[in-house]
Amino acid sequence: MPTYKRILLKLSGEALMGDDAYGINRATIVRMVREIQEVTALGCEVAVVIGGGNIFRGVAGGSVGMDRATADYMGMLATVMNALALADTMRQEGMTARVMSAIGIEQIVEPYVRPKALQYLEEGKLVIFAAGTGNPFFTTDTAAALRGAEIGAQIMLKATKVDGVYTADPKKDPEATRYASISFDEAIVKNLQVLDATAFALCRDQKLPIKVFSIFKPGALKRVVLGEDEGTLVHV
Ligand code: UDP
């Protein structure tokens, strides 16, 4: 039995990149989708917020010198591309997914309508939230916190490259250890970067726990959903 009935999974754009320098790596996206399929098979309702950093990031890279809001809208469009790729891969793997966009782009994907999203989840369909919050100056982490709270997810799963929150940067400090769990308040006191400040504050206010784990570790998502010791739980 899954520990969580409904989850909000935040996948960064980089999670689709594999070892490539940018874009979407076919083998990686298929592997990711199969990991998600394993948890839906447990009876867990899954909503995904996908990032766009593998294609375009508003703050850095190609956007240098650009008007910030314009660059951010480009970043949001990048998340729509990832969402379409993800949904199509899910279809190929025999799953039913619906993409819902925070910005109006109706010829391509349906708009985000909360009751519709809830209905899809209840029907056992996967829901992929695209275009972040629909607003510049935000991130897809914030979109994940927002949608997670809106759909009544029991937890937000933040998939990263590192398998949790560490006492120090494990790449720089060999003594660094992983927290199995930590409270929101402790994370603030210790100045640990779990999510960006806006996303973190929203989760804390809404009492939405966060689990940080590595999406590159085979089976980790399933272990998280089963409540096993994996990654770091940030709790109220
Ligand atoms: N973005 C935005 N508003 C949002 C979500 C995303 O403006 O609500 C833009 C922003 O430019 C960001 C880009 O989309 O850099 C890609 O999102 P993010 O960096 O969160 O993607 P990830 O790092 O998860 O791949």
TrEMBL record:
SUPFAM superfamilies, per the entry: Carbamate kinase-like
Protein name per its UniProtKB record: Uridylate kinase
Domain of life the protein comes from: Bacteria
Alphabetically ordered keywords of this record: ATP-binding, Cytoplasm, Kinase, Nucleotide-binding, Pyrimidine biosynthesis, Transferase
Coiled coil feature spans: none
Domain Aspartate/glutamate/uridylate kinase intervals: 5-214
InterPro entries: AceGlu_kinase-like_sf, Asp/Glu/Uridylate_kinase, Uridylate_kinase, Uridylate_kinase_bac
Species this protein is from: Caldimonas caldifontis
Regulation: Inhibited by UTP.
GO biological process per UniProt: 'de novo' CTP biosynthetic process; UDP biosynthetic process
Function: Catalyzes the reversible phosphorylation of UMP to UDP.
